[in-house]
Specification:
Strand content: 25-35%
Keywords: Aromatic hydrocarbons catabolism, Dioxygenase, Iron, Metal-binding, Oxidoreductase
Distance between the termini: 46 Å
Organism: Sphingorhabdus buctiana
Cofactor: Fe(2+)
Structural class: alpha/beta
InterPro entries: Glyas_Bleomycin-R_OHBP_Dase (IPR029068), Glyas_Fos-R_dOase_dom (IPR004360), GlyoxalaseI/FosfomycinResist (IPR050383), VOC_core (IPR037523), Xdiol_ring_cleave_dOase_1/2 (IPR000486)
Family: Belongs to the extradiol ring-cleavage dioxygenase family.
Number of helices: 3
């Protein structure tokens, strides 16, 4: 199937927040994101409905933008209780494992609980939550070209097997078997 256009990148990703100011300050202090833009309206431009909001935009680096909506007239925000808390998350890339360890130390020094570093075969990552309850991940790539090529090769096979059985295919079970020398 051919698509008559090509996207360049994600323009922005938007989530809901409890407090726009607190969210801006938290992301600046914890992750160093830069607050760049805000839109505030009483009516939603796409639907015309009355629903006052503050829409904030944060520069994450590399042309990536994370946005949030504060919606004071809506019921208190929650999360999808039918989906485990570890599933829905935002992952941001860092340069290397040393940077990941420094990030963990910084985030923990702010009193935030951090899980990891976790070994994922081709990357390592840490996990924590923002003040809105969104799970965040920082990850650094550690894979080899051969590993990435093998994952690309088995991806269609894995999807086909999963689709038929709904059990985990074993084509890439090596991903979460941490080598002894990598556990430092």
């Amino acid at each position: 199937m051919s698509v008559p256009f090509k996207t360049d990148r994600i323009h922005h990703v938007a989530y809901r927040c409890k407090d726009a100011k607190e969210t801006v300050e938290w992301y600046a202090r914890v992750l160093g994101f830069t607050y760049t833009t805000a839109f505030a309206e009483d009516h939603v431009p796409s639907t015309g409905e009355y629903d006052p909001y503050m829409h904030i935009f944060l520069d994450c680096g590399g042309g990536n933008v994370l946005a949030f909506f504060e919606l004071p007239n809506q019921p208190e925000m929650g999360r999808d209780e039918k989906t485990p808390a570890w599933v829905q998350h935002l992952a941001f890339k860092v340069a290397d494992f040393d940077t990941l360890k420094a990030a963990k130390a910084h985030i923990e020094s702010l009193g935030i609980d951090v899980i990891g570093p976790t070994f994922h075969g081709i990357f390592r990552s840490i996990y924590f939550f923002d003040p809105n309850g969104h799970r965040l991940e920082l990850a650094c790539d550690i894979g080899t070209e051969e590993q990435y090529a093998e994952l690309k090769r088995v991806a269609p096979l894995m999807l086909d097997d999963w689709s038929k059985t709904k059990t985990a295919p074993r084509h890439a079970e090596w991903l979460h078997k941490e080598p002894i020398e990598a556990s430092e």
